Amino acid sequence: MQLAMVEGPDRLPADEGTQEVLCRKLCVLEADLSGVVTLISELSAHFVSINSEERTIFITFKTLEEIWKFSTYHKMGFLGQCMENLLMNQEFWLISLDQHSGIEISIKEETLNLMYKGFLMQEGKYIVDLYLEKGDIALFEPPFLGSGWTVLSLADGARGTKPKPALEPVIPFHEYVSPYEFHMNLLTKSTELRTMDFFFYFPRWFLKSCPENELSFQAGERIIILGLLVACFDWFMGKLERTGDIGLVKTKLVKTTSSFSESSDIFLKDEDRQIATLDQDKIKEDTIALLKKICQSDVVKHILSEVDESQRTEVSSVSSKQQMKKEADDTEWSREIPRFSVCLEQDNSSPDVHHAMLSFLSSRDHQPEFLLLYRAYPEFLISHFEGHSDEEEIVAYLGVARELARKKHVSWAQSRICFLLGQLCAGRSKFSQARVYYEEALNVPRDCFTDMFLLSAIYSNLALIYLTQKNHEKCVRFSERLSALLMAVPDCFFGCEDPEVFKYVLKKAVLAKNQPAEARACFLLAKLHLKLKDGMSAIPFIERLLILADEVPDACDETLSQVFLVLARLYSDQRLLRLAESCAKRASLQVGVGATVSHCLCSISLLLENASELYGVAVPTQVAPYLTRAAALVSPSMEPVLGHIHALCLSWLFHIHGMPDRAVRYMSTVLDHSGVSSVGQSDTTAALLWLAWLYICNQQPGTALEVLDAVLSSLPEHCTTQLEGVVYNMRAISYRHSVDIRQATESYRAAIEICEEFEDRRNWAISLANFGFMCLQIKAKRLAEEYLTQSVELFSELEDEEHELSFILVLLDLGKHFVSQGNHESGKLYYEWALLSAMFISHIDSQLQATRHLCQLYEEVCPDEAQCIIYNEHQLNLLQRIGDKSLEGEILEKISQLYLNLATKKANRAALDYTKRSLGIFIDLGRKRKEAHAWLKAGKIYHILQQTELVDLYVQVAQDMALSTGDTLFTLEMLEAAGDVFFNSSQDREKAICFYRDRALPIAVKTSSVRSQLRLCNKLSELLLQLGQCSEAIEYARTALDISLSLADDLNERVAFHRLATLYHCLGQFEMAEHHFLKALSLCPSPLQYDEEALYYVRVYKTLGDIVFYDVKDPFDAAGYYHLALAAAMDLGNKRSQLELCTQLATIYHNCLMDRELSLFFYQRARAFANDLHIRRINLAPDYSFRTTAQYKNTITGATR
Predict the structure, then answer these.
(1) Residue 58 forms beta bridges with which residues?
(2) Could you tell me the residue range of the domain that residue 766 belongs to?
């Protein structure tokens, strides 16, 4: 299946950007295949794979039936609609109201046709169109042992062989109806089958000849066609113009007059064109009431959010009630069918005993009461004859009545009694006896047959008996006559309870390639199956009828919407919910005269019934086009309630999906209309309050106040009502958004007083909460805490669940307040309370909010990595339930870092697992930057786990992904990060040089990214120093110094001077090292701000003293540096440093400068520090062989090792 986005009324291909969005959607689908596998299975196929880049889904089939069903759904346009519902989010349907966006699906017809032929060959039967001289439909059997193909023409029954026939298989539906079963019966020549492929209305014909047992007429008389004349059938119903007699006429015995006309209509005049009865008015009323109840938001909450689960359950229950009501209505209708009862006497031989029955059955014309007789079973007959204990007595009674009717020449009563006897015999499987009675009923002498319903019942029962007895010639004869009646008499199938007889009409139309006749046969078969309460068997015929309706122009446009609705209901009963939704959409959006307001609302009813299961919401946005279509079909003045619910529902949907401006526009239009008064005062007031709330959400508090003032003015002046509390509460919110705190405070107090007066605890709690929110906004924290606490107390006393969403938000805000005040335990308590409440009502969005607050608490305020991991994993679970892949990837990334921070082997492996999961999601979403970071992080974790064989692979893929973005700066960032993986490690550090020097630095220079150059030069100089490559390191250290000077960056300048000093020191250039150390010290801030700065002075001055004393051999200057280091150490209070420095000074003054007094002074100070540090011995002997660079050599050796 090839998917493509289309836009506009003409369904033209969308731009590349939109197609790329579809690719990303398919990528997401690849990560979680459950949805697409379920959908493909519902479409009667088997999922294979997805290629998101080519926007292709690969499927396969295992049976012939699967290909048939799938191709049917494709022809009916369901595939694209099903994929739209699966792939697109809820906002799409609101946006597509203006853009007319959608998905179109194309399939490889050649491949599908090859698979179809393959299945036919496997089954050993091959029904094809044989493109020879006549173009007949034939049955082919594959060659056996080198023989040719065995051919059986289904048009004339001829057999033969063909060496290599040009074969084209018939469509799967024609394979399903199996016309080859009647091949020996359908002996009409193909030329006759194709003479006329249309229906004709009331032309006049000239007679050439007349059979004796049908309509009596003479040559040259004019016959009026009754109903439809179908050229492929042997008979049609005609009316003799001269006498008005009605009967069957041989099609081949007449010719047309000049008034001959053709038509593609498949319905008869005055025929019930509904395929099944739907209580559309009841469904319409219930659907509007349900939408109103859900979308008429309780504005006193002010904290509006999505519909809760109780409302979802209510949707399902209402739909169930509608279905139950429909079934109850059907039962009631059957009870009201006219009945007759016969009072039986003891003496059956008396003519008076049967007088009532004969009088009832002797009517020449058809009576409505007879319909029940024609469809009756023995159980029904027994229940309507009193005084008889079994069927045998009833048969005996009817036998006497039959003889009496024959003697009295009451022909119609005799015919009907014979029919009833035939029914009783057929019910006991006495088919031969039943056939005798049916034939007698047919052959009773009379002037003409005027009861067409009795005639059709006799024909259908005789055809069924002959079919059962395999008397195919007579079966065809009566089936042909029944076909004529079906094409002429509306609803004349009451006497037939077996669809097999009707299938003859369909098979004959298929062989004749007469699409209108095929469509009518499908219509009648579907109607019969539904009458027999066999909806599953009706589905193929309804599907074929809808396909033919597209191929035969104007055949049944007026009924298409109703047929789609019936099919949608059947799909829903079979739990094919996606197909049911697509079918309902076709019903409501049908172009032309087909769709009505009732059809649109019936579609909405079916959508709402399955919304919770498909989308997890009570009202999905898919109802928007249905409502818009319904509103467009009728003027607002004629259907004010519909216009009201249309605006209310759409504004509600736009509001909850973050489109407040469009919500305001929809709601304001209906209120501006003059017909708003027709919806009632209470609904108008509620709509005004809802509009005011939308204005508030759309940052239009001034306009909201105008609307609220209008509502207040409409309320009684001298009587306070509960509604006033709602209005004052909303006025306070409007004033708060207008930053009029005084007016807001007065309104809040008025709202609280009114709610308290009426003991309206729910609105009271909400008013207190809103007052508390305002106090938080103006920093009146103590008042805010008081009002919010009172609100929580009131909320906790309420028993119903309708307040829970507002309660949760109050708990979260109160918890946030306590955390900001430093009362972390109370804040945590309220967060956990909110989470438990949200879990109790199964509201995922509220659970997410509470969980995020707890994650932030344990991550930033009260660091606890274990708790943070627990709540982030719960957040991950929630995101998986709502299917937000983007946030799911970010949370996986976050959890990975939390595990990595634990720095244990087990935690590192967990971090790797979460990183790989996030990587899969970022790949599916096409987020290349995130994907590159995930590849690199996985490589870093492998490096930590010392699985070095995989590190280079992951790092290389990260680089390639960064390059694929085409963003040079991002590539530079990733190359530097790749080097950091090795730079910050204790193994393979030399690998970082390649990333820093050979890859990242040239890009930084080329892009003039000065800061990146500075970082890279600093890292390179430090790394080369650690690796003992000091000469090369000096070059990068000087570059870092130059860049720092150009940027006037004192800190980096000091670092550069210090690193250069260290490098010169390692190279033995002591004067240069001393110079650069002093330059670094000169850049230190004065006065000192942190202990670390004093410690830096200690270390650098001590290093300078060591260089001058041990390397330059100048004890006097060395003593000066040691004195400066000692001063810094004293300022810092570091006793160990003071001990070392006092010992060094005592050594210099004792051995080099020969100052005994100072030597003793520093020795005594050193002894004091040694005692404090529990050091027993101090060595004052000078070590002239000591080299200060040894410390770097040791470091380098350790790093290398």
Answers:
(1) 49
(2) 715-799
Residues 457, 405, single domain; the answer is: yes
- Cα dihedral 42/45/48/51 (nearest 10): -80
390 lies in some domain = yes
What are the tokens at 285? 């009323």
The residue from 223, 239, 256 where one domain ends is 256
CA distance 687 to 676: 10
Q: CB–CB of 339/325 below 8 Å?
A: no
- Residue 736's contacts (CB-CB under 8 Å, 6 or more residues apart) are 744, 770, 774, 777
pLDDT at 400 (0 to 100): 86
- Give the model's pLDDT for residue 1047: 92
Answering whether pTM is above 0.85, one says no
CA distances, 802 to each of 294, 729, 807, 922 (Å): 12, 19, 10, 38
If you ran DSSP here, which 8-state letter would residue 44 be given? T
Same domain, 703 and 758: no
pLDDT at 303: 40
Q: What are residue 12's DSSP bridge partners?
A: 7
Among 712, 736, 753, the domain boundary falls at 712
pLDDT at 201: 34
User: Is residue 589 domain-resident?
Assistant: no
Instruction: Quote the pLDDT of residue 298.
Output: 46
pLDDT for the residue numbered 1179: 67
**DSSP result, 967-997:** -HHHHHHHHHHHHHHHHTSSSSTTHHHIIII
Cα–Cα dist 1063/575, whole Å: 77
Residues 690, 725 within the same domain: no
**Which residues of the chain are modeled with pLDDT < 50?**
130-134, 179-213, 298-348, 674, 1197-1201
345 found inside a domain: yes
Position 484 scores a pLDDT of 86
pLDDT in tens, 891-931: 999 999 999 999 999 999 999 999 999 998 898 888 899 99
**What's the total number of domains in the chain?**
6
Neighbouring CB atoms inside 10 A of 746's CB total 15
Would you say residue 1163 lies in a domain? yes
Sort 261 into a burial class: Cβ within 10 Å, 0-12 / 13-18 / 19+.
Answer: exposed
